[in-house]
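Input structure tokens:
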């Protein structure tokens, strides 16, 4: 991208994929939203967002996953930027350019990561701290996953995504992420869970007993939990069943799970040699699927 009219180079940030390492649904609030508890990590892969500071707000989109994603007012980058402008009157914006690499509506929060990336760039441009309470409110107003994506650090997420624990230094996990190419809308998966508003099922488990010091220890902790949205998501997208089966059958696959509301699933491996070989083998089996080896941390 060329330098902006004022000579300043565009600001850039990576919008990393969010992965729910586990996810418990505790109940449904009277307003219809679901109370969750989830250990969230972030992948090395993601979209990229650039901001060329200037007088008017705009968005262009390119990249391998841009097809079908409109740069209109519904786009989460523009929604986040408008909400920022309303919360911080008189601040500067400019021309955003999004390179879309993550599959859309896939349970790894691509749109939320893009919205959070827009807020990070606007905060940097206008000298606002990421810890600013108004910025956090803006993030929560754009979407449930946006607050955790603001810093994109591993942490426990609770409430409807608005209660965040401290950033965690998790052991790095060697993962393969797989999406079968079926978009799954989050709202439908929560609906398929079938809870009535006001249903309160479980008390919060309180998260990790102690911070695991090795990937094997973390995997052992994760093996005791799951993703409560996997069963309703499979009713909507039965392909998820095949993704989980194929991931589990790969040599060296240690733990297999769906992220968020699906359909992206992940498998964990001992090292990058095993995860790279597994990704290659699965891409050969199912060339039309989105398959990526990456580090989660
Ligand atoms: C499933 C997760 O991805 C886990 O990280 C998130 O909870 C979903 O986050 P998100 O995609 O940012 O969700 P939003 O765009 O805010 O909400 C989409 C819809 O999902 C439902 N929703 C979302 C979050 C939540 N805790 N309870 C809900 O019931 C609501 O019907 C909402 O209208
Ligand atoms: N920049 C964007 N990138 C992706 N989706 C966007 C964007 N802007 C708006 N959307 C819309 O937001 C919806 C959710 O997309 P997203 O890719 O964030 O889903 P997701 O990965 O399932 O999210 P989550 O894991 O947070 O539930 C889609 O219907 C999509 O059309």
């Amino acid at each position: 991208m060329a330098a902006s009219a004022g000579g300043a180079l565009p600001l850039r940030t990576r919008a990393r994929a969010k992965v729910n390492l586990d996810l418990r649904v505790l109940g449904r609030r009277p307003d219809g939203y679901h109370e969750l508890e989830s250990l969230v990590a972030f992948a090395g892969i993601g979209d990229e967002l650039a901001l060329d500071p200037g007088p008017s707000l705009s968005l262009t989109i390119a990249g391998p996953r841009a097809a079908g994603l409109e740069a209109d007012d519904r786009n989460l980058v523009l929604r986040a930027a408008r909400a920022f402008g309303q919360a911080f009157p008189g601040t500067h914006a400019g021309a955003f350019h999004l390179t879309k690499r993550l599959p859309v509506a896939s349970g790894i929060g691509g749109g939320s990561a893009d919205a959070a990336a827009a807020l990070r760039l606007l905060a940097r441009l206008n000298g606002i701290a990421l810890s600013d309470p108004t910025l956090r409110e803006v993030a929560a107003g754009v979407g449930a996953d946006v607050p955790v994506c603001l810093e994109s650090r591993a942490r426990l997420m609770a409430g409807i995504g608005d209660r965040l624990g401290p950033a965690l230094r998790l052991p790095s996990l060697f993962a393969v992420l797989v999406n079968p190419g079926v978009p799954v809308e989050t709202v439908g998966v929560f609906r398929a869970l079938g809870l009535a508003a006001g249903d309160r099922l479980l008390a919060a488990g309180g998260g990790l007993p102690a911070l695991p010091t090795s990937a094997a220890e973390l995997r052992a902790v994760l093996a005791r939990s799951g993703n409560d949205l996997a069963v309703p998501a499979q009713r909507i997208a039965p392909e998820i069943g095949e993704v989980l089966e194929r991931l589990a059958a790969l040599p060296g696959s240690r733990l297999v799970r769906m992220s968020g509301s699906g359909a992206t699933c992940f498998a964990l491996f001992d090292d990058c040699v095993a995860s790279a070989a597994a990704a290659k083998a699965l891409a050969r089996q199912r060339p039309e699927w989105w398959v990526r080896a990456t580090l989660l941390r």
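The CA atoms of residues 256 and 267 lie 4 Å apart. The beta strands are 11-28, 34-54, 58-62, 93-99, 155-159, 163-164, 173-179, 255-258, 265-269, 290-296.
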